[in-house]
Design brief:
By secondary structure, the chain is mainly beta. 52% of the residues are buried. The chain has a single domain, classed as Jelly Rolls (Sandwich), CATH 2.60.120.
Length: 284
Amino acid sequence: MRRFIPRVSLVLGLAAVGLLGVGSPASASVPGLVYVQGHTAFNSTVYKSITVWCPPGLSVIGAGYELAGAPGSVVLDDFIPNSTSVTVGAGEVVGVGEPSDGTTASWSVSATAVCAVAPAGLQIVVQPSMFAPGGGRQVTATCPFGKSLIGAGTSLSQGFGQISVRALSLTATTVTAVAVDDEDGFSGSWSVTAYAVCADALPGLRLVGASSNFNSFFNKTITAGCPAGQVATGAGWNIGAGEQVLAIDVFIADGTGVTVVGNEDDNGYSNTWNASATAICADA
């Protein structure tokens, strides 16, 4: 049975961290499951980052993030699961056609760490792409033989607000991060990294996907819900468009599934596009 732990919030410098948990009895499939959230300040600082930690004795098995405010003007840089923490960082879109110091609107970054007693075989596989100039590229992190994917993440190196992760595509054993440069291009060197959180298969482990319609609306929201009696451990997304649409929310914190929000950038996007969400679900 799932029970909700009352949220406890505290202020750490410019960030608020809280525990929004789904408690589990000792015999549950995902013992100790809790969702820990942290939030940066809401202002117009060009770059923000937040790290949230699992409670003592628990490990990271998945993650989620939200970029609130200035939709289409902020791009995800870091969505990194570590053994006991999750780091999310984002920066304002800058470059040709944008203000030299980014947007003047206020915005914030939220991170969610999905924490639990470490399942058998837990490990995080990290796979970076080449670090070089050029346009879109992708990289895949693969779980070792006999292990399954239970969580995912990605990060960019030296994108400087002109590279975005268009997709974090999941299979039963792999994470593929797809990144593209913006419409003006980017002359510098950069790389994208995929993170696969792997473990022996959890009971009932499955991927659940959902996609929005293709149209030219500037903002789309889609939810991939876990079946009754299951909880979300990890998240993926795909923005079916070019470089002018950003994934601004990958929400997992209520444990029922994954909600993805895509938004066109400040320059808009004249073609049709869609947003897809993928939830990694397991028995509660």
